[in-house]
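Lecture 7 notes: from sequence to structure.
We start with the chain below.
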Amino acid sequence: MAPVNSKAPSPYIAQDTCQERVSSREIWALTWPQALMMLFQFLVGFIDVLVAGYIHPHVQGALGIVTQLQFFFMVLGIALVNGGLAAMSQSLGAGLPLRAERYVGLLFKLSLACSLCMVALGFALRVQMLQLLGVPEAIFSLCLDMWDLLLFILPSSYLSFATVAVFRAHKKVWIPLASGMVVCAVNTVGDLAFGLGWFAMPALGAKGIIGASIASVTAGMIFNFVMLFRQKIITTRAAVPVRWEKRALPYMLKVALPAGGSQLLWHLGYLTLFFITNTLPTDSVNAVAGLTAGMRIEAILFLPAMAFSFTGSILVGRCLGAGNRQEAKRVGLWVTGVGALSMSLVAAMLFPFVADIAAFVAPDPAVAQIAGSYLLFNLLATPFTVTSMIMGGLFSGAGATLFSMLAFSTGTWLVRLPLAWYMGHTLWRNASGVFMAMLVSQIVQASICLFLFLRRDWARFASTAKRFSRGKHAE
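Predicted structure tokens for the same chain:
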């Protein structure tokens, strides 16, 4: 095969690189479909919590706990996606589509293997995990039943995450949007039919909600794989010898391991936050339900922010793959500024309606009051939360996930959790103390991210076109 800088044409070299300035039109073209996809993802979680609230506050609280556990068990999948997306984007930016396709095959293999390991681990430790979280006795058995069912969703979730990452790396972001619509439609019908008993179906309550989640995620995964083959993004060339995988795996793991560490510490932090809330001196069950409802409402701001994060990750990876550091930094700052400003404006518009929104999602008045308190503190944190989310995507695209791990773990473990325990259990002795700690930690986290992006050499983590041409990461 001819090297990247050879004059001879090669069927394995693409011209879709990032040698020139990225236009604002291209940025928006990548962002708006992903923002809509995030909206559909928000609707999935929102409807789950809404239906759970209409069944019983205990179901709403239990759903929040098992969903957070599910996020924790997705840590390996998210880590692999970070490594795979960086490797694929940089390969395509360097003009090496064959190498990108081979990384697709490697990503799928690792995702399936890790998901099965997580299912076995989650089943073996299910009782101990709920005990460690300090789950109240009133909802312990309910949480256990819901978790046993939710484990079946992990393989489909891992593979869905991986397929979406492949489409993003290839800039085919309209396909995940269509997939998100499928997932949302199946989940909504399933929640209403089997959760509440609409459409003359049996009302299964909490089990109906979990069953709808399993069906919807599986439908989305199947849709994604069909589109991968129809678009010819993956072919038989993705099946590669073990010797290639041994050469390619180190860079993918170099990005994935710090990303996995960051996700592990982040989700352990949220589980610890649930423990702190579960053990508050007063009204702990309602506090957990209010925290769950508040997080789902908050997602309407932060899931669209993830669209900016994904766009930044794609473009930064492609620019660095082509060796264009200056454009990677400019694109990163542009995406961060526009994303933080637009989401902050949305947050400002929501302020007058906080009580009404909380009451709609949480029919129980006590739960609604706590959810409203959560929203007030976290709406104030919006510019800082969105900034750190987008910066995390930029570091991921560059392969600098070590920087994300540093910023997120510092904000969570050195600021949020100690402050939440002190304010929630000692100073204020209620859920508002926990929420105040979240606001302070987001300010610290965003400040660290900005410092690292502006003052440190995060671009050195990328595999550039020059490195590809030397054969260090050959196809």
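Points to note: The longest helix spans residues 284-321. Residues 388 and 446 are 5 Å apart (CA to CA).
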